[in-house]
């Protein structure tokens, strides 16, 4: 399974659509701050949450089961991700997620905490604290490992982020 994870596109729907088309993912996760009408989001298999700059009536958080993994998706502002990831991790644990996707900080991050993989794809338009805009592609390696790769909006690999992570499948 190939999953595209993006965040903080801030109204750049043409750029978002180009990325979605190029990556040909089985599913797309948008972690909020899409800042456009929901009807203008890509017409693909999509999980989307509302960020602090969004006005559309989409959920504040969502869970999505993809393959062996349960994803917990939020924007992150209500979990105060700019100061700590602890609240996000606890909420992901509570809902039985193995992968927590979030945005808000515009900073690409991928780290494992116990059996939870925390992923911030960065921002495809306005990076903060990182040299280039980014998004993430997650792919199953096998039933217990996932590969995370970061890319620039033009499709170039960002080698200083990502990796392969071992996780126990979600209890569903």
Automatic annotation (TrEMBL):
EC number(s) on file: 3.1.4.-
Coiled-coil residue windows: none
Keywords (A to Z) from UniProt: Metal-binding
Cofactor(s) of this protein: a divalent metal cation
Top EC category: hydrolase
Any one Gene Ontology molecular-function term assigned to this protein's record: metal ion binding
Residues covered by the Calcineurin-like phosphoesterase domain: 1-139
Pfam families in the record: Metallophos_2
The keyword tRNA processing appears for this protein: no
Family label: Belongs to the metallophosphoesterase superfamily. YfcE family.
Full protein name: Phosphoesterase
């Amino acid at each position: 399974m190939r999953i595209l994870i993006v965040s903080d596109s801030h109204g750049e729907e043409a750029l978002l659509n180009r990325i979605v088309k190029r990556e040909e993912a089985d599913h797309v996760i948008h972690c909020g701050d899409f800042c456009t009408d929901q009807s203008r989001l890509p017409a693909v298999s999509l999980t989307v949450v509302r960020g602090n700059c969004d006005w559309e009536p989409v959920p504040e958080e969502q869970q999505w089961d993809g393959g062996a993994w349960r994803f917990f998706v939020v924007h992150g502002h209500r979990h105060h991700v700019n100061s700590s990831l602890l609240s996000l991790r606890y909420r992901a644990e509570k809902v039985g997620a193995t992968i927590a996707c979030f945005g808000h900080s515009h900073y690409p991050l991928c780290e494992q905490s116990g059996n939870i993989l925390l992923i911030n794809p960065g921002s495809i338009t306005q990076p903060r604290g990182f040299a280039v805009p980014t998004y993430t592609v997650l792919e199953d390696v096998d039933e217990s490992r996932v590969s995370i790769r970061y890319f620039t909006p033009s499709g170039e690999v960002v080698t200083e982020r990502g990796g392969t992570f071992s996780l126990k499948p979600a209890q569903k």
